[in-house]
């Protein structure tokens, strides 16, 4: 089983995540590439929230291909192009994880941009599944 790491002397997390997760050696790992807010038909939504939802759905589809889901996510790394998009991304992440009852480790970074200017959010995940 995963063990949440919440050591004394470290400020509590700012959102729905944990500071660290220990994964036992018998777990199978999956890592996604960064997923942009790009629909299958090539559409790019205008809002950071809608892009984040697409990023999370794409990561979820990759995990599902390996027989995993939100409950198996141990780390989420997200990148947004503006501080104003942080809350929209976090709302999307919380919605995506809501039914799992799970809080992974998480990092959110503000970056100067992506390959195309219309991209506002990118998300990548690491997940672990036990035999």
How would you describe what is shown here?
It comes from Roseisalinus antarcticus. Keywords: Hydrolase. It is built from two helices and seven strands, in the order E-E-E-E-H-E-H-E-E. With 131 residues, the chain is an alpha+beta fold. The protein has a single domain (3-129), classed as 60s Ribosomal Protein L30, Chain: A (2-Layer Sandwich), CATH 3.30.1330.40. Helix 2 (86-97) links the parallel strand 5 (73-80) and strand 6. The model has no long low-confidence stretch (mean pLDDT 95). The strands form two sheets. Strands 3, 4, 5, 6 and 7 form a five-stranded mixed β-sheet that branches. The chain has a two-stranded antiparallel ribbon with strand order 1-2. Helix 1 packs parallel to helix 2.
The largest β sheet comes out as: 5 strands, mixed
Bin the helical content: 10-25%
Question: What Rg, in angstroms, do the CA atoms define?
Answer: 15 Å
**Principal-axis shape:** globular
Structural class: alpha+beta
User: What is the overall pLDDT average?
Assistant: 95
Keywords: Hydrolase
Pfam family, one: Ribonuc_L-PSP
GO molecular function, one term: hydrolase activity
Protein name: Putative reactive intermediate deaminase TdcF
Structure at a glance:
With 131 residues, this protein is of the alpha+beta class. 23% of the residues lie in helices and 27% in strands.
Characteristics:
single chain; 131 residues; alpha+beta; 60s Ribosomal Protein L30, Chain: A; five-stranded mixed β-sheet; two-stranded antiparallel sheet; globular
What is the fold's blueprint, element by element?
Elements: E1 3-5, E2 20-22, E3 28-31, E4 35-36, H1 48-65, E5 73-80, H2 86-97, E6 105-110, E7 121-129
Parallel strand pairs: 5-6
Antiparallel strand pairs: 1-2, 3-7, 4-7, 5-7
Helix pairs in contact: 1-2
């Amino acid at each position: 089983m995963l063990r949440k790491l919440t050591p004394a002397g470290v400020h509590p997390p700012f959102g729905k995540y944990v500071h660290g997760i220990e994964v036992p050696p018998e777990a199978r790992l999956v890592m996604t590439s960064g997923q942009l807010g790009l629909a299958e038909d090539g559409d790019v939504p205008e809002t950071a929230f809608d892009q984040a939802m697409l990023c999370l759905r794409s990561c979820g589809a990759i995990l599902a291909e390996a027989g995993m889901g939100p409950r198996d996510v141990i780390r989420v790394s997200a990148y947004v192009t503006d501080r104003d998009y942080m809350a929209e991304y976090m709302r999307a992440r919380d919605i995506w994880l809501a039914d799992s009852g799970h809080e992974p480790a998480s990092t959110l970074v503000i970056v100067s941009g992506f390959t195309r200017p219309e991209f506002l959010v990118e998300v990548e995940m690491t997940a672990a599944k036990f035999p």
